[in-house]
Specification:
The structure holds 2 protein chains of 2 kinds.
Chain A: H1 2-12, H2 17-46, H3 51-60, H4 65-83, H5 85-92, H6 96-132, H7 141-168, H8 171-192, H9 194-197, H10 201-208, H11 219-243
Helix pairs in contact in A: 1-6, 2-3, 2-4, 2-6, 3-6, 3-7, 4-6, 4-7, 4-8, 6-7, 7-8, 7-10, 7-11, 10-11
Chain B: E1 3-14, E2 17-28, E3 32-36, H1 43-50, E4 58-63, H2 74-77, E5 78-81, H3 93-103, H4 109-117, H5 133-145, E6 151-155, H6 163-178, E7 182-186, H7 190-196, E8 199-204, E9 206-212, H8 213-217, H9 223-237
Parallel strand pairs in B: 3-7, 3-8, 5-6, 6-7
Antiparallel strand pairs in B: 1-2, 1-4, 8-9
Helix pairs in contact in B: 3-4, 4-5
The chains are: A mainly alpha, B alpha/beta.
Amino acid sequence: MRRQLRSELLKARSGWLLASLLLTATLLDVVSILGTAGSVHRDIGAGHTTIVAGSHDIVRLGFANLLFATLFGVLMVTGEYRTGAVSRSFLVARSREDVLSAKAVVSLLVGAAFGVLGAGTGLLAGWITLGARGDHLVLDRETWLICLGVVLVSTLAGPWGTFLGWLIRSQVPAVIATIVWTLVVESAVSAWLPDVARYLPGGAEAAIYRDTTTSVLSMPWGVALFVGWLTLGAAVSERLLRHRDVT
Amino acid sequence: MTVVVRFDRFTKTFGATRAVEGLTFEVRAGRITGLVGPNGAGKSTSLRGLLGLVRPSSGSATVFGAPYADLAEPARRVGVSMEGVGLNPAHSGRRHLTVFARAAGLADSRVTEVLELTGIAHAADRRVRGWSTGMRARLGLATALLGDPDLLVLDEPTNGLDPEGVRWLRTFLREQAAGGRTVLLSSHMLAELENTVDDIVVLNRSALFVGELAALTGDGARLEERFFELLTQSGLAGAGAGAGAAGPGVVTRA
């Protein structure tokens, strides 16, 4: 397992995939924070919100990195199916389970990097953009809990992406399915059936980053639920890996 | 002589298509065995079955007496170069080899050794995307050699190689066999196989011939001639001769 991890870590930091996803995620975080800081300033002036709530909303925007962490996990697996390198990975590894586990662990580490970057960007860009308008970012207990949630949710989103990759295998459909599921399907379910949506993977993720716009579980229950989804994903992936042909 | 590879009534179907049927043969240690057959004969499917990449519908295929998945150190026992066992074109040749050397628990210095052995050290730090087909074939071979394995499984290893490369490969494989290694290779290049292999398996979904090359071409006939005779016979027979059920002109050894 240790040698498979070394191999997968080297793959992860080879090429431009990781760097480009990190850069894109950060740029989008900054753009969304710039926009939100402006509206927060107006809303404070109009008495519609407070600087405390506004600070929390801005820092929470780093949660978007979870999508990029998921995509990294998806691409980490499906990229190997696309090039055929997955066959080589299986041939060299001591077992297919080693490959599955190593990719999950590496994507967990990469997910943590996305999370730290998301939380850091939220804090730094929030401090700069609010400060530029004469407001001050509030760093209370809730702010730090949101930061923890942003880190945690991206960390867990990495392996979730690899399991989606093992399930779908084909790169383009896997990427489309991930984006459509995250941005369209779960949002729709959340709007129409909120009591169902809170138990879906996206609902669990929202609970982890302490979303306030929808009816979500508490943060600890969100973590527990998402770990449950991860366990299910791992079990299904492992079973499919053992029985599917690699053609 | 030790049996390194054994196919025992190996059958693989994909949906309604029977790709390989009742394939039975053995590869002995220190020998070079050629697997030949027309397109769609099941050569690659058989090799992928041997390597555990596809599961047999019935029968079995084993290496060193066990399914491939049961090998404790697969990269040190079996080296593989075959179509479909790909590489990331965004990686350099050196990075590609280092990735798999680490997975196999090998020192990074082994990467330099196989790069030099296969004559691609000069291009090692360039991205594989820009490599010629022949250089990629050499990289596939270098990957197969990483673990200094006892068995080499090569699928169309001469594809893309220039004449000098083909001659180099022939000499290289003979040296490997002389050193006690076993080679199982598939190829369309019958004339080249004739100069390289000790044993031959003619496949058209099932084995049409299994035995020493000399037994097939001993009367002065060329391999190409015998190959087409066997295919014609199998065509007349309808579905080819099953291993162990030898018909006229069919030799089985396993």
